[in-house]
Write a structure and sequence with these properties.
six-stranded antiparallel β-sheet; alpha+beta; Jelly Rolls; binds 2,5-dihydroxybenzoic acid
């Protein structure tokens, strides 16, 4: 095409776009390359937060606002590539929540599913539908969507945990509902420990007669550190580490054998001292925290040093390689289960 013909075409197209725009109509061919990309193009970037830094701000917030007044006293870890979205990946949220001795965070429920990974402190609780799960460091506690939950800290030390929620996923679907209970704490339904005893040992309650066994979608909501760490240690004793992820165990929903909640997958990893993984990409957006040890992670060539309780996000399709200086234990959650349900999940391993 000659230059003048091309100019003429461009002018006529520009004219067409101008006339269409007031009717909210746009030409696909101008944006197709950006919409349908050969590989994932996420706005999220790789970031690491030092626990000590966030903790300091959180404790200052603790002096200024009560858990009850805030409803949830949480500092959000926002991905700088997703500014203003309160998101750590396009589909997930992360925050650090503080409950001081004697405080409660009032009872509510919402469409968003949440996990709590206890970073610091002992003896606080999350009550799920009126049953308290008492926290120990590095326990995992779930509050799946629409379950009543309140938090409290009867201990004499501050308790801090990592909140992982699917807030951006539920927002993307415009499916969010929330309500407050008309009292600060849910009345007790079952004594603490009932949940683990009933569902946490490969067993479930059985009743005589013709009554159907009613199990909720996510019957188990407390996964203690002592148990998952022992399982990981046994695995590391008896097996070679996977070259891309080390020794890894996924937390399961015992009712389905699948991920812990409909929108969030969670797992733990152990990398032996001196171990270095091969490069791996996956479509999940994953959030990691360090439970034990030191090391580093290289994400698309950028290296982040890792110390205990640091939080790092590995966005979709960024190549990650982990190095353990001493035995490195990690907790991670991601949107993998959503991608698997949609038949989208992919990995690429070197
Ligand atoms: O504990 O219920 O970090 O509703 C954000 C929203 C925690 C909670 C968050 C929430 C909660």
């Amino acid at each position: 095409m000659s230059e003048s013909l091309a100019n003429d075409q461009n002018a006529q197209l520009a004219n067409l776009y101008d006339q269409m725009r007031p009717s909210h109509l746009y030409p696909l061919w101008e944006v197709l390359g950006a919409l349908v990309t050969p590989t994932p193009q996420t706005d999220a970037v790789a970031v690491r937060w030092s626990y000590a830094d966030v903790r300091e701000y959180l404790m200052r917030a603790g002096d200024l606002i009560s858990a009850e007044q805030a409803e949830r006293r949480v500092i959000i870890l926002e991905n700088p590539g997703l500014e203003g979205q309160s998101a750590i990946t396009p589909r997930l949220y992360a925050g650090l929540q503080l409950v001081l001795p004697g405080e409660i965070a009032p009872c509510h429920r919402h469409s968003q599913s949440a996990l709590r990974f206890i970073m610091e402190g002992d003896g606080a609780y999350t009550a799920v539908d009126g049953e308290k799960a008492f926290m120990k460091q590095y326990d995992l506690i779930l509050t799946p969507n629409w379950r009543w939950h309140d938090h409290g800290n009867p201990s004499d030390r501050p308790v801090i945990w990592l909140d992982g929620l699917d807030i951006p996923t539920i927002r993307a679907l415009d499916a969010q509902f929330a309500e407050r209970l008309d009292q600060p704490s849910h009345p007790e339904t079952f004594p603490a420990g009932t949940n683990r005893a009933s569902f946490g040992r490969g067993l479930r309650p059985l009743q005589a007669g013709s009554q159907r066994i009613e199990t909720v979608r996510e019957p188990l909501f407390h996964y203690p550190y002592a148990e998952w760490r022992a399982a990981l240690a046994a695995m590391a004793q008896s097996d070679r580490p996977d070259p891309h992820i080390g020794h890894a165990l996924e937390f399961l929903n015992p009712a389905t054998g699948g991920a812990v909640m409909p929108t969030i997958s969670a797992h733990v990893r152990l990398l032996p001292a001196g171990f270095e993984t091969r490069l791996r990409r996956s479509t999940e957006g994953a959030i990691f925290t360090v439970v034990e040890g030191r090391g580093e992670v290289e994400i698309d060539g950028e290296v982040f040093a890792l110390a205990e309780r640091d939080v790092v996000v590995v966005p979709s399709w960024k190549a990650a390689r982990w190095r353990a200086t001493d035995t490195l234990v990690l907790f991670a959650y991601s949107d993998r289960v959503v991608q698997e349900k949609l038949c989208l999940y992919r990995e690429s391993c070197e």
